[in-house]
Amino acid sequence: MAVVADRTGQIGGDDILVFATLRNERVRLPYFLRYYRNMGIRHFLFVDNGSDDGSRDYLADQEDCSVWVTNASYKVANFGMDWLNWLLRKYGTGHWTLTIDPDEFFVYPFSDTRPINALTDWLDTYDIRSFPAMLLDMYPKGPIDAVPYVEGQNPFEHACWFDAGNYMISRNQKMHNLWIQGGPRTRMFFADDPLAAPSLNKIPLVKWQRGFVYTSSTHMLLPRGLNHTYDTGGGEMVSGCLMHAKFLSPLTAKVEEELDRAQHYAGSREYRAYAQTVGKQPDLWCKWSEKYINWRQLEILGLMSKGNWA
Amino acid sequence: MTVGFIMMCHTALDRAAQVARYWATSGAPVVIHVDARVSEHDYSALGRSLADLEDVSFSRRYKCEWGTWSLVAAAQSAAEQMLDRHREVRHVYLASGSCLPLRPLSELTDYLAARPYTDFIESVTTTEVGWTVGGIDIERFTLRFPFSWKKQRRLFDRYVEFQRRVGFKRRIPHGLVPHLGSQWWCLTRQTLSAILQDPDRDLYDRYFKRVWIPDESYFQTLTRLYATSVESRSLTLTKFDFQGKPHIFYDDHLQLLRRSDCFVARKIWPKAERLYSTFLAPGNGSSVMAEPNPAKIDRLFSKSIERRTKGRPGLYMQSRFPKKDHENGKTSAPYSIFHGFSDLFENFDGWLAKYVGARVHGHLFAPERAEFAGGEEMFNGCLTDSAVLRDYNARAFLTNVIWNSRGERQCFMSSPRDNQDNNWFTATDPNAQISVISGAWALPLSRMNENFATIRREAARLQKRELDHLEILRSMYVKARVRIWSIAEFIENPMEPLQTIIDEISPRSTRRLTEAPQMVDLAGFGQFLQNLKNQGMQPLVMGDFPLDEGARQTATRRGRPYLVK
């Protein structure tokens, strides 16, 4: 990993930091940065995995971004987590850290009226060190590639639909995290093999300490006490969602490229499944799809919870 | 005559300074206590920022730790300073650095001037409080607490347990009746000086130094000795959650706070810029002399505590995944399972849908697909009819069906042919109404065009599954509303049980059943059962079904609807 731009000296003691890996996301970056700056993120730490679309230069020019580059294999690096774990340890220790992909948009209770440090201050008073946010796959109505995404645009202007109530949860006995599957990807691409359907459980917001490590993407961490982000006695703990702007044009091109690289989880079976299905049946929308309004709607639907934060 | 504020500060000193300035410039003297752990740098910065205000002074600094005497000591010395320096003060108001005045000072002084001899301090006896931390109430006053509850919880608990076992009891000083309450009070000069100048103060102080959380009991108890008129409530709006932590106010609470008509609120998030700028702006006031009314805020916070402790029944999600039997509602709403009915009656779901205000599905757990009502391929929440997905997590499928259709009762058919994974779950779910006609599964078999050996094997398999299910439904763990008839029993008099079930589903509907569902042709069923028996398979779940049911058939002949009553 080589440094492209190191502005980590600017990081203040209370700053909340975003960590992300990316590859060829240039067109998405302006909105991504704007979204998280508005939320109150003060510094971004990116690992660029061999972009050739100008992503790296664009980020290196941003005053609040530090950028590293590597051309090594995403797959060998435990799907990028080795790079991020190293950065988290070095720069994240003592900070609230938000580890996400460039197509993931964090929402939490009151995110429309309270900045993210209202949440982290509150978590601090309860000595809560990790915060869950389930991945919520968003999709447009009609073919995914029908409306091209324009730089700077809110991706959820078109991809504003989601599945509200077809999620399946079980508990991972070894790591103690919840394993959540379901949503449009499961029902469209994995109906014959649900075991292989993608995991939607994520714990992206963590008050990082030395010794913490993400083990499998941001689905779970060690020590495993950090995965106890749910109540087992009937109550609800606070949680958020990661709105997933994956189904955005140009998807078909992206799927082809990613299949070519074969750098994804479990032999890229997810991308293979898309390639098989997206061509012939591109509409994820159905009449029961829910149109996104705001976080309160997600709360009422039971996808996230305010818990005792009022 | 005016009111003087004591402010207990340890963080967000800039906000405390803002509030102190607001009060002081409005004409109320302020004494600030700054925690001794605050750095000298921050402390002197605070002093400099308020140096232009004559009526703001700083009291002797104590290192304040939660639940310890230091908080009382700090309040005592600040109160003494207030009473000594500011003769014009009639009421002394204890506030914190994260308090925010919601109404102009003049409204508070008018309010207090109208009640010149009233002490506002929440002060209740230990038997009346339900909010004590750690289940310790009167024992706060009778045990010793040398260990920190926050840092040495195990030692703390063990030592309490030990004292209980050996029957240790501290003696409460004569004349004191222990009272508890919020530490944010507003006392009159008379009462406060009586407490501070009491000849027995040394005795009381020595005693309270070893009481647990004395800041919630020292003034609350001693006030009762001297006060002429105690209003047992705090003028400060502050709400605690189930862990004893104060709820925090943010910008989006602005309207709620404004309408509460409370004088002071805590705790305010230090970065709630809009709250500070709005409430500290000059001319902010209601002009009417309203009584504080925090009911709306109370509701908001008690709802949030309930969400955290009890949650929404029947919801399974990323931050609520209850252990078995801790669900507080295995499902979110009542639902009905009809087992065997679709085998005995033709188009039973169609008939049922006419009589109940509910969504009537076919066999949701059929082996081929989930038979949603109306033959739909998808259901609320984007559930699909895929049997593979459903069987991958049958419980999630069921709880999702019920959760996604909140507000509408769900009914579905079942049979031993269907997925049986949920049998324990539904049997132990108080929301489930399970009606069983046992043995009805054999009716379709009796009309099947298939080798009898194959039919017999299938009959044996289904009977085994039904027996397993019935065993569950007859166990002592059942919480569902379960009714079981054998097919022989049921056909004797089908209308009465149907009426009972339907009345239970829609209790307010007074509609009587006017039309019976159409029963399938039972001719030859008795013989079929006899054939099974002859072939060595004992039918166990059909009840006493006669070999020749011809006589019975006259009463329930198909195609002859009849009226009940």
- Runs of chain B with pLDDT <50, length 5+? 553-565
Percentage beta strand of chain A: 15-25%
Number of helical regions of chain A: 8
Largest interface: A-B, 58 and 52 residues
Q: Name the poorly predicted regions of chain A.
A: none
Give the CA-based shape of chain A.
globular
Domain DUF5927 (chain B): 266-565
Protein name (chain B): Peptide O-xylosyltransferase
Organism (chain B): Thioclava arctica
Subcellular location (chain B): Endoplasmic reticulum membrane; Golgi apparatus membrane
Task: Give an account of the 3D structure.
The complex is a heterodimer of chains A (310) and B (565). Chain A has helices at residues 29-39, 55-60, 81-92, 116-125, 183-189, 251-261, 265-278, 295-301, and strands spanning 2-5, 17-22, 43-49, 65-70, 96-99, 104-107, 130-131, 133-137, 161-162, 168-171, 178-181, 205-207, 213-216, 220-222, 240-244, 290-291. Chain A is α/β, with parallel strands linked by helices and 310 residues long. Chain A folds into 2 domains: 1-102, Rossmann fold; 103-310, no CATH class. The model of chain A has no long low-confidence stretch (mean pLDDT 90). Chain A has a 7-stranded mixed β-sheet with strand order 1-4-3-2-5-12-7. Chain A contains 8 helices and 16 strands. With 565 residues, chain B is an alpha/beta fold. Chain B has 2 domains: 2-138 and 177-281, Alpha-Beta Complex (Spore Coat Polysaccharide Biosynthesis Protein SpsA, Chain A), CATH 3.90.550; 335-555, Rossmann fold, CATH 3.40.50. Chain B has a 5-stranded mixed β-sheet, sandwiched between helices. Chain B has a 5-stranded parallel β-sheet with strand order 15-18-13-19-20, with helices on both faces. In chain B, a hairpin with a 3-residue loop joins β16 (378-379) and β17. The longest helix of chain B is centred in the last third of the chain and has 22 residues, at 452-473. The model of chain B is unreliable at 553-565 (pLDDT under 50).
